[in-house]
Amino acid sequence: FIRLQLLALLLLLLLNWLHPHPKALKCYKTDSEASNLTLEGCSPDKISCVLHFRIDKSTGARHRGLSNCWNLNDKCGIADCLYTPHSRIEDHGSCCCRTDGCNLMENLRLVTSPPTATTMPSKGGSSQGNRNSTSKSSSNDSGSEGGLFAKGGSDQAASVLLFSLAPVLAICVTVVLGFFLYTRHRERRKSRSESVGLASYPVDNHPFPVGHLSSHIRLKERLATGKFGCVYIGEDAETDQRVAVKVFPPQERGSWLVEQELYSLPEMSHPNILCFIGADQCGQGPDLRLWLVTEYHPLGSAHDYLAGHTVSWIQLLDLAESLSRGLAFLHESSSEKPAIAHRDIKSRNVLIRSDLSCCIADLGLAKKFFQGESIGDVHPQVGTRRYMSPEVLEGAMSFYKDSFLRVDVYSLGLVLWEMLTRCTDAYGAEGVPAYRLPFEAETGSSNPSLSQMQAAVVIERRRPEFPAECQSHQGLSYLRETICCCWDHVPEARLTAACVAERCKALRRLPVSVAAEEARRRQQEEQLADQQAPAAGLQLPQAAVINEASAAASAEELRPLREAEDAV
């Protein structure tokens, strides 16, 4: 066994001598506000530099935005930062390159086709100048690439020898180390590493002792199973208080830490954010389970509640306003609390309280934005496909804080649509139809693929359909307009979550008068329809007068809503 270990060590040393580790790429990086520019080293998996910039439509001038390392190499320049205009985004762009410190505005080059020696234009200048500079740049690039592999016959021979022996050496190292070392010590090392630094982060006034939640809580019934773990009903052995316990497996420790960190931020308490009680660990080694303990809400998620219940106009406003206020709280920042983008707003991640208000849960994919800090490495295409915004589906999202917040508002609009379609005031005598998820009718699937969502949302620009009654009900019509402003195709045209909350609050002045007026109008129309044709003909002018008066009264009552919107 010792001889095999020594042999493996010698093979690794030989491989390292033949092929030393490449020098890490250095790129210019900016903070979240794109104000500070520093040259920093990249991690080994980052092979290119990226530069995002904003385009002034009136002047055509380009202004630097965020800069960072990148893990893609497709269509990137070497010393020049290549930029291909996007067909749907005219005011933002990005470019990438592959040499140290190349992601600067002075290295920006515009291309209209894949980079070649004859079609790639240079920065500025006449067409002749473009051809000359393109030719020069192409020759420089090719020369740079050639220099990487043309350092002499000995280097080429060493490279050939290295790549010939690499598969054999890799197999030997994998078999020896993988079988005798990795499998034997993996669980021991993993247990030791996970036992260090795992602590509980309870909030003030919770009923459980610090660090001993798992010893005081008995898991009862499993409520749900998700991508990151299972949710159980827990019961405190001493007080019989019911709580919700989200149990993460060891491999999801990262998600557990993210949620724990966000819930433990200063000033994070809010009535429309799920109340965090504490975090703990249970077991060791492969049996380790990571607990996240929160308040328990028997009504479940908005998805489950809406699937089995309808709501009145007033209840709809309670749900819509509380959800919007919870998201607005996440998005706002203070001296202690950063702005937070949820990045997975959907009806399954919204819980219903006993008073029919909402609280937002599941912060496993959330991203916080501290003032002056770099956004860092963030994968933009996360969340649930059905609730992804057009820019996320298209992979054309800008790496700014506001861009992430606008993605949340798009998803908020879809959840509000789900709530509106379960409102009894949105339908006539035929009643409320069965509950449907967003885009279930548009895609014909309860679990649409990414390509189906891209076709429906990005290419066809489709959105879920509203009930026909929304056109005649003044309150529902205004809420419909608000939802459409949330899921606007242009991110900058969307409302903020705070504005949505204020609109819902203003609508509370309408429910009794408008809903009653609409009910009276429908009743009068039904009575007129039941009469004989001649009598109905005599009553039609009166019905028209009633409808006109109803519309005028409703329009007068909507005036405060417009004023509240202007104030926001």
Automatic annotation (TrEMBL):
Keywords: ATP-binding, Kinase, Membrane, Nucleotide-binding, Receptor, Serine/threonine-protein kinase, Signal, Transferase, Transmembrane, Transmembrane helix
SUPFAM superfamilies: Protein kinase-like (PK-like)
Region described as Disordered: 113-148
Entries under Gene3D superfamilies matching the protein: Phosphorylase Kinase, domain 1 (3.30.200.20), Transferase(Phosphotransferase) domain 1 (1.10.510.10)
Domain Protein kinase: 217-507
Coiled coil: none
Compositional bias segments (type: Polar residues): 113-125
Record's compositionally biased regions (Low complexity): 128-143
InterPro entries named among the record's database cross-references: Kinase-like_dom_sf, Prot_kinase_dom, Ser/Thr_kinase_AS, TGFB_receptor
Main location: membrane
Top class in the EC scheme: transferase
Name listed for the protein in its UniProt record: receptor protein serine/threonine kinase
Source organism (scientific name): Macrostomum lignano
Taxonomic placement: Eukaryota, Metazoa, Spiralia, Lophotrochozoa, Platyhelminthes
